[in-house]
Write a structure and sequence with these properties.
CATH topology of the largest domain: Rossmann fold
Strand order of the largest sheet: 9-8-7-10-11-12
Shape: globular
Helix content: 40-55%
Largest sheet: 6 strands, parallel
CATH architecture of the largest domain: 3-Layer(aba) Sandwich
Number of domains: 2
Number of strands: 12
Number of helices: 14
CATH class of the largest domain: Alpha Beta
Radius of gyration: 21 Å
CATH superfamily of the largest domain: Glycogen Phosphorylase B
Strand content: 5-15%
Length: about 375
């Protein structure tokens, strides 16, 4: 079976959950019999694609960030897909990596499978630019897809409700993680003695300011703990203003990370805190489990589905509730030890091999 992917997500994402997902699928498929994966791409600054020696890609000013860079990459890759598509010998299944409908007129009778990661644009439209057409594009391509993959049961329910897609057209296939405990020495990074970890973007529905309020409340209880923010870019002017207002400048650290540094941060943290109001899946939950880091999760959307009984949950609109949970993991070593054990047990339910095999089953449904 020949399965072809396009360059959409690799045009704008240097690292992140979606691009990691497709790289892991490509990697798993390359080791399996009966499936031949390919990626139509010309330019990308992805940190993950170099792991795949059968994918040839050119960088595009990787060390220079300038306005419109990703739009240029996107345009060049789209042109490359249009030039290359019908030169391929045979395509059994096409799998676009995001929602731009540019490819629809190329397919003829080739079936395509679409993965939907979340419904944040539909649920929180006020948090996105008026020039962001993700919701409109998603609605168009999902209606025409042969099958849809949802990365969690919660996302599936949202797809059915918000896009009016039949349940019978959707397969739920969970994600996984490749992160493992780091071998970095304790002195490799300058870290606070005791810290809570926050991972990823901090804008929109990620609820970061709520977490800052909880850290402030914790300090008023004479429970002193820093907050390390891994990735997500430099702190914005608005974030710095709020941190100064709360007098937390000496407690908040933002760090750029690679997988090795991130794993080290998980391994040394008192806990991961994930206060998001909405997630399609939540890969950081599995990353925390892999690195034996206790996970404190919002009780919203897919997070309870992923964390199961291995995490502690809080109401992401109640600062006292989060503070109570934080105090528990900071002061109860017996609880922390049990969470680490339960996290490793829970992690066994998720693997990229299982994700790949279930994805092949979806492809077979549309090849028929």
């Amino acid at each position: 079976m020949n399965v072809t992917y396009d360059a959409q997500v690799f045009s704008f994402q240097e690292h992140g959950g979606i691009s990691r997902y497709y790289c892991e699928l490509l990697k798993q498929f390359s080791m399996m019999d009966g499936i031949d994966p390919s990626l139509i791409i010309e330019y990308s600054n992805s940190q993950y694609l170099p792991e795949l020696d059968f994918i040839h890609v050119r960088h595009f000013f990787p060390s220079h960030r300038f306005k419109g860079r990703n739009e240029i990459i996107k345009l060049l890759n789209r042109m490359h897909v249009r030039r290359s598509f019908h030169k391929l010998s045979h395509i059994d299944v096409f799998h676009p990596t995001y929602y731009d409908p540019y490819f629809l007129d190329l397919l003829d009778d080739i079936p395509f499978v679409l993965t939907i990661y979340d419904m944040s644009h539909e649920l929180y439209p006020q948090l996105f630019s008026k020039f962001d057409f993700t919701a409109e594009n998603k609605k168009e391509v999902s209606a025409k897809a042969s099958r849809i993959i949802a990365i969690s049961e919660h996302t599936k329910k949202d797809i059915v409700t918000l896009l009016n897609i039949p349940v019978s057209k959707i397969d739920v296939i969970p994600l996984a993680t490749t992160l493992f405990p780091s071998r970095m020495g304790d002195t490799a990074l300058s870290l606070p003695h005791k810290y809570i970890l926050y991972v990823g973007k901090r804008n929109t529905y990620k609820n970061f300011f709520f977490l800052l309020s909880a850290i402030k409340a914790l300090s008023k209880m004479n429970i002193h703990c820093s907050l390390v923010c891994a990735g997500g870019g430099n702190l914005s002017a608005q974030e710095k203003k709020e941190i100064n207002r709360l007098q937390l400048s000496d407690k908040i650290i933002q760090m750029a990370v690679n997988d090795n540094i991130l794993a080290h941060l998980y391994s040394k943290a008192q806990a991961l805190v994930f206060p998001s109001l909405y997630e399609g899946f939540g890969i950081p939950v599995l990353e925390a489990f892999a690195c034996e880091c206790p996970a404190l999760l919002s009780n919203r959307s897919s997070l309870p589905e992923v964390g199961g009984d291995a995490a502690l949950y809080f109401d992401p609109e109640s600062v006292p509730n989060l503070v109570e949970r934080l105090a528990e993991v900071l002061e109860n070593n017996v609880l922390v030890d049990s969470m680490r054990i339960n996290g490793l047990r829970r992690l066994k339910l998720f693997s990229w091999e299982n994700t790949a095999r279930k994805t092949i089953e979806t492809y077979r449904k549309v090849v028929g």
